[in-house]
Design brief:
alpha/beta; six-stranded parallel β-sheet; 27 strands; globular
Length: 1189
Amino acid sequence: MAEKLTNEQQAAVDSRERSLLVSAAAGSGKTKVLVERLFSYVEREGANLDDFLIITYTRAAASELRGKIAKALTERMERDPGNYHLRQQILRVYRADIKTVDAFCTALLRENCHLLGEDARGHALRPDFRVLDENEAQVLRERVLARTLDDFYDHLTPGGTLLADTLGAGRDDSALEDLVLELHAKLQAQPYEDKWLDAQRAFWRAVPDKIEDTPYGKILLNEVRRKARHCKNLLQRAAQEMCANDALNQKYAPAFLDASYQLEALEGKTAEGWDAARGVTIAFPRLAAVKDSDGGEMKARMKSLWDNCKETVKGFAEIFSASSDEAVEDLRTMAPAMLALIDLTADFSRRYNEEKRRRNSADFSDQEHEAIRLLIGEDGAPTELARIVSARYREIMVDEYQDTNEVQNRIFDAISCKGENLFTVGDVKQSIYRFRLADPRIFLQHYNTWPPLEDAEEHDSAKLLLSRNFRSRKEVLDATNFIFCNILSEEMGELDYGADEMLRLGANYVESSACGAEFHLLDLPTQTGEQRVRASEAEAAFVADYISDMLTREFPIQDDKTKELRPVREEDIVILMRSPSTRLLDYRRALEARGLHCAADAGEDFFASMEIAVLLALLQVIDNPRQDVPLIAVLRSPLFGFTPDELAAIRARQRTGDFYDALLLSEDIHSVEFLSTLDALRNSAAHLSVRELLSEIYRRCNVLGIFGAMRRGAERKENLLAFLELSEDYARSGRQGLFDFVRTLREQLAEGEAGTMQTAHASTGVRIMSIHKSKGLEFPVVILSDLARRFSNMDFLSSVLVHPQLGLGPVCVDTQRHIQYPTVARQALERTLRREAKAEELRVLYVAMTRAKEKLVMVHTQANAKSRVADLLALSDCPVLPEAVDSGKCMGDWIMLPLLQRSEAASLRELAGQNGEGSFYADETPWTVRVHDGLSFVTPQQRPDDAPVDAAPPKDELPVDFAALSYRYPYAGQTAFPAKLTATQLKGRALDEEISENTALPPRLRSLCKPKFLAGETSLTGAERGTALHLVMQDLDFFCEASEQSVREQVEKLRAQRKLTDEQASAVDVRAIVRFLRSDLAARIRKNAQTVRREYRFSLLRPVRDFATLDADDAVLLQGVVDCFFEEDGELVVVDFKTDRIGRTQIEERAEYYRPQLEAYSMALMRVMGKKVREKVLYFFSVGEEKVL
């Protein structure tokens, strides 16, 4: 008996003659709705299954959906066996267009590629074109790009020179290649690449005169306005709260109110323009002293809030580091390079397309873009072909619509009948594939603008919400709703999590009092290099202990079949992590140490296991033996056991051509036997199905016997039998042939869609997987760990950022001083991309929490947890302010921000030193919140064995140590760290490098301009002028008269002694030296003249732990040159001269930049001189000021 649909599900099934967006929350049965809607057409209106186009986003999903439709058809035929129309659908279900977007586009192109015409070189796409896999496409792109860059350098323009000298600079062309390939990849999400590039050209050719007139200036002003308002509200609310404490009200509150008024002024000035806002100064003075006894617990919280707002305001200085005119000038400086990059990318794209046409091939993005050319005319209207295609289908159904990009969306619009037959299903809260160019804004645009179905006019587009969850217990839903009601908003997450978005209970469960959500915080002391490794071990040990305890006390869960409670089993539990690869070994060790089974095997999935890899290689060889890599893999495998010497002897017979040709010439018995077996299998493949061929391989080669006799033999045999089942599934999908089977598997593996086959062994243990892989799955018990993983910054390191709406954001590079800094465009794009990335991380967290059916446990390991929880407590609220959510550094922060407001979180508040009472959030579904000492879970020693051995290997097993293939060098971190290190590498100047011979140095920007002696130039660069000034300071008489005449005489003397060249002497900044001689620092140096040392060179060995978080006892040779130091009152004062051209507002920033260098100098002098360093001084000649560190 089929389960009855809810009213909302039934409405989604029955709606007709309109475009309908179904926003289906996690576990709401969206696939069921899609299948029921399909059969409502078949049973009520006499439609056929192949009258519909059903789009999914992976081949695996398409295959799964086809299977569900076939199952639903079988159930209906059992209920109504005499229904002739249903019986007709048995064949049609395998002809139905249930496919991915690229599969639809491939079929469309093969039928209609003649309509595309020829390219500029006369090449056209023919119906038999080949779709390149990603590896082939990557190789082809690299080849075409190499030729494109050769022409680029041969016809170098001024803009091209700037591009190569700045953004594309490096030891080779790799930086420029990466820029072009990244921009080209991002262009694939644009329906019309040329139009997007033309729009970018138009901007960079005519940069507006005012920065506030650019989209970048508007974004940054809006960010300042938003953050200023956020801090203002926090400070004013805090001042009001402090009225209850006399001491704080007198000492803290006035400062809080003053800062809030200044922030309010800044908020208003942002509407007046860039320079107006830049002119506002906000002071955060040191707070007046308040005794702890007077301030109570509120004091620490207020101090933390003050510091948080202070840090936020510091960020404004970076935004407003340049005036409007200076910011515009930076953009115009980089404009020629941007135009060159746009032209270079367009040229590469054209050549790449031409090469693909010449080869009669296409990549995946080609198919979508060419489909747009076929389906949409230049006027933007559907073409005649689009109308013909649209007439084929009664309705277009799109699953996982939240993962659509703009190109795909245009295709769906073109083939839908005036927007009246497009049925889309998805959940924007589960859109987690932005890295695949998915754009959740498309879903959100419809979600925010289309009316609810019950309010929509006839034929108008509408939306329908499915919020009833049929997967999880009420405790899991309440926990998820609590977190996301408080942290997800349109400002920070692109969607408000309101009453419509909340998950509602739809599942029926037996009552159980043990299913409340749990949050466990593991507190570790301040991290050292050794303890950073232990954090993962501590968390793994805690999780393993928790699971062991659940199993021991027989934690009750509901059985899916009997609907009664039963004890939890290992296979009911999953450990979810953002990226488990780096922590998997620790978790496997911890589980196995407690006698638990781990379904994950050192990160290897089903297809990466040796036995399946060998079988897949053998199938490739049977299909085509002229493939060297699969052939040699088969020969070396345990099935045939060729030795390296035998392979070398075979290759020696014929050094050129395919290895198969050389094998045919071999006369040794081993080769003859292999060729005989291969010929027999190739003959069998001509008339056997893939399943039958595999059975023949298993029998002839004793596959099960050989692999079953190896270590973990039972598991290997299960994998081999599962591979047989996979071939049966392939045959049931209506496809035949060895070639198609092999090609399909290779494509799925290349796209990461093949996944892990479910075997008896794989399902009898605690599973460990990434959150992305868990999407679409459900588990009785979910343990969400690794919550302390910082959000990735990898996407923001490129010298040019790309955004689909905002365009390009480059850094500005000063080739004279070898420095780079962000332009306003770069800052705007980085902040926008970071906010979008965090919005996606919120959705990833939502996916993770909604995988749980009955029990959700969250584990967060935090170094120095007391300090971090105190910071979060100052921002904690229900709901959490969007800017506070934005300040979160990891998922654990997001969970704790609202959780700290719950009454159950007393242990977290106590950890932060907040023991007082207050009104806290509570509901009918309590949480369990615990704080643990993380070090109590760290094992004193690691197990040396990397993988357990099930049993001793049989005596006749081949003498091959397969474990050696997965060996990882335990000191890989040390190999990337130099044996010699200069203080300059910690930050400094060139003289340190001179005494460090072969120490690895960071790459310098190279120039493609003519050398100075050819260009007739004689002026010094900024760096060279700085060197000249340092040379003078080496020999300057500190007792000379502080006048320009006296200093010039000193310089002339050095030139006469040939210590300075004529150019250097002329370039010395005499006035800067005079200012120094009149400074207090110079007076101190003169006062202690007897102890002054200049240009002091040092070399000493220091532990590598002083410079990197490596768990090693190695020593590093530290070398450097100290500009000047002297002794004062028995202690040392270290002085470093800096010639950076900076303003006074930049002194603090540059001082922090040079702090590691000064600390290295101080450490060296203390070791060498045996005296304490009392002071570290930076003297900046450009502003004539000193900074004491």
